[in-house]
Design goal:
Chain B: It is an enzyme of class 3 (hydrolase). The complex is a heterodimer of chains A (about 280) and B (about 350). By secondary structure, chain A is mostly helical. Chain A has eleven helices and no strands. In chain A, α3 packs across α10 and α4 packs across α6. Classes of the chains: A mainly alpha (about 280), B alpha+beta (about 350).
Chain lengths: ~280, ~350
């Protein structure tokens, strides 16, 4: 066997191992959904059933928690995206002193442990008479999620050609028109991905939320509490549904991307033909 | 309509760096006016002051007689074509052209009429729904012109818009720009470091160096009678020879040029005997002679470049370190014109310009 094929097989083996490491837990978890056992396990297999989906369907606490998570995530999205975009715009144009300080200030919640963000948010707002709950959770999560948004927008802004703004300005556009017609459409893809990231970050957050949730419960908190009070495969059923939804979105995105890539490939060809035809 | 541009005592300083020195200039209505200079000479700064992107440290800009001090860039009767063209990549060709009208609230049907007229003017009517990324360099160039013209500016500002194009296209666009300027009657203010562009298109050219206007003149005057040593060496090719004044006869001055001997030329400056001076003689005005006389020297040919209609050579006069550039018509009987050979060259005193060396920058 040549060293080349050894390398090739080595890489294949490694990749297989890597994907097994990634996906085995998910596969086992999903499979346990269908096991007619009181515990989320695949051995012993006590028969195949769909009853855990039914139990999940009837779990009002879970639905309540899911609803809270969705409301919080939507609220975080609505607060964090405008703040993050505004910070990115400011930092990308501001040339004065203190720019690095402001940048550091925005990023510091990312470097602070989530537990500390949770506790300090709670202590601060308590002293003002605000107790934990859905709204405080939105505020606490926004502190670091806005920083994610800012980083994503800044990355796109770095590639923005500032002369486009001058060009629009010289054609008579007002500052607002320049923003709405030139800058905003350019930033839109980054804003949309930042919104998705913000939503997911909020949805899956546990450690910050734990301190500021008050009497409300989010999905992650609910699942964690179930681990203590007794987990049933109904949680696996929920996990499986979330995985399927994720796969569905990822697949839809990929199909759309390939479609666009194909379109982009077709266009230049037809163009060069039409030019050649004229000459 | 008055679309003249006046610069009254305009000066621009960034911190301690003076980008544009005190400048007074009147650009006539409907003129094709160029600022010519090397990069960093302040010409782009001047253009940004006229467009309103920069406020001058001192002085005022007037367009059509109207003071522009309180008028921001988006309210000035100017529009600009940028060096990188700055077409909006997310809009179609037509949307680009109509943008200036759209932000003014012009109706869609009206806008469409304008963009169709302009697409015809720049000879690209079939491109109206194309995306910017689908255009070639020359097409982008023309769309940028159409977009700038759509807002019916009184003054069009062009910041080296041809520099990204290849030579053939650049030459073609020169005639096209000049043509559009003639058709529209708009004042064109053109920025370039390419003297060929400035000379072929402009009614008048301002040569700039180190933030200062060196000379403002029509292309022919600029080429034939440069006012400063900088203008003499920047516009076209020129041989520069240093010397000391030994004789003055009206406008005719004779210099002692060391190992090149005594050479005469004409001048617009005043000199005293013993002053240091510079003599400029263009490569095409140095001609071949059969015998030695005044303003002649024997030189050895170092290098010979065939340029089609012309032959460009570098020659060193005997006992001298000078390398002179000489241009001969290549249909002449060239015979012994070959590297290493000794040939007698000379020039007429009225073809050589003599300038004071003190003003050299």
């Amino acid at each position: 066997m040549s060293s080349h094929s050894i390398l090739k097989w080595g890489i294949r083996f490694y990749i297989t191992l890597f994907f097994l490491y990634l996906f085995t837990p998910l596969i086992i978890m999903s499979a346990a959904t269908f096991n007619d056992s009181r515990f989320p396990t695949i051995s012993p297999w006590r028969g195949t059933t769909l009853k855990w989906f039914e139990e999940l369907w009837q779990d009002s606490g879970m639905w309540q928690a899911l609803g809270n998570s969705a409301i919080i995530a939507a609220g975080v999205l609505l607060i964090a995206v405008p703040i993050g975009v505004a910070c990115a715009l400011f930092l990308s144009t501001y040339r004065g002193n203190g720019k690095n300080f402001l940048y550091g200030l925005m990023l510091s919640p990312l470097l602070t442990p989530g537990v500390i963000i949770g506790i300090s948010t709670l202590i601060f707002w308590r002293s003002l008479g605000v107790s934990g709950g859905i709204y405080l959770t939105m505020i606490a999560q926004t502190t670091f999620i806005a920083a994610y948004v800012m980083l994503m927008i800044l990355a796109r802004l770095q590639r923005f050609d500032r002369t486009l703004e001058n060009a629009a300005f010289s054609l008579g556009a007002s500052h607002f028109q320049v923003f709405r017609r030139i800058l905003l459409p350019y930033l839109m893809p980054a804003i949309l991905s930042a919104a998705v990231i913000a939503f997911l970050q909020s949805f899956e957050n546990y450690n910050t939320t734990l301190f500021v949730k008050g009497h409300d419960t989010t999905l992650t908190i609910y699942i964690a509490s179930k681990v203590r009070t007794g987990l049933t495969p109904a949680v696996n059923a929920l996990g499986l549904i979330l995985i399927l939804i994720t796969i569905l979105f990822a697949a839809a995105y990929e199909v759309k991307r390939r479609h666009e890539a194909r379109q982009a490939q077709i266009n230049p060809e037809t163009d060069s033909e039409s030019i050649a035809g004229k000459q | 309509m008055d679309s003249s541009v006046h610069l009254d005592n305009v000066m621009m300083r960034f911190d301690n760096f003076v980008a544009v020195q005190q400048t007074d200039l009147k650009i006539e209505s409907g003129e094709f006016f160029s600022f010519l200079g090397p990069s960093g000479c302040g010409k782009t700064t001047l253009l940004n002051i006229i467009s309103g992107f920069l406020d001058p440290t001192e002085g005022t800009v007037r367009i059509g007689g109207q003071d522009m001090r309180q008028v921001p860039a988006n309210k000035r009767p100017t529009s600009m074509i940028f060096q990188n063209l700055a077409l909006f990549p997310l809009m179609t060709v037509a949307e680009n052209i109509e943008f200036g009208l759209e932000v003014r609230g012009v109706r869609k049907a009206e806008r469409r009429k304008v963009s169709e007229r302009l697409l015809n003017l720049v000879a690209l009517p079939e491109c109206r729904d194309k995306r910017i990324s689908d255009l070639s360099g020359g097409q982008k160039q023309r769309i940028a012109i159409a977009r700038a013209l759509a807002v019916e500016p009184r003054v069009l500002l062009l910041d080296e818009p041809l520099s990204a194009l290849d030579l053939k296209l650049r030459q073609h666009m020169r005639t096209e720009l000049k043509d559009i300027q003639r058709k529209t009657g708009i004042t064109f203010i053109y920025i370039t470091h390419d003297q060929g562009e400035a000379l072929t298109m402009s009614d008048r050219v301002a040569v700039m160096s180190a933030g200062k206007l060196q000379q403002v003149a029509d292309p022919m005057t600029l080429y034939r009678t440069p006012a400063t040593p900088f203008a003499a060496s920047f516009v076209g090719e020129n041989n520069r020879i240093e010397g000391q004044v030994v004789a003055i006869d009206g406008t005719r001055v004779t210099l002692d040029c060391g190992d090149l001997g005594r050479l005469s030329g004409h001048t617009h400056d005043t000199f005293r005997l013993g002053d240091k001076a510079l003599l400029f003689i263009r490569p095409e005005l140095l001609t071949r002679r059969t015998s030695m006389s005044d303003n002649c020297f024997t030189a050895q040919i170092r290098e010979l470049n065939f340029e089609g209609a012309y032959l460009m050579m570098e020659a060193t006069p005997l006992k001298s370190q000078h390398r002179l550039r000489i241009q001969l018509l290549s249909d002449m009987n060239l015979g012994d014109v070959a590297p290493g050979n000794l040939i007698i060259f000379g020039f007429a005193a009225e073809d050589a310009m003599i300038m004071s060396g003190a003003r050299d920058v």
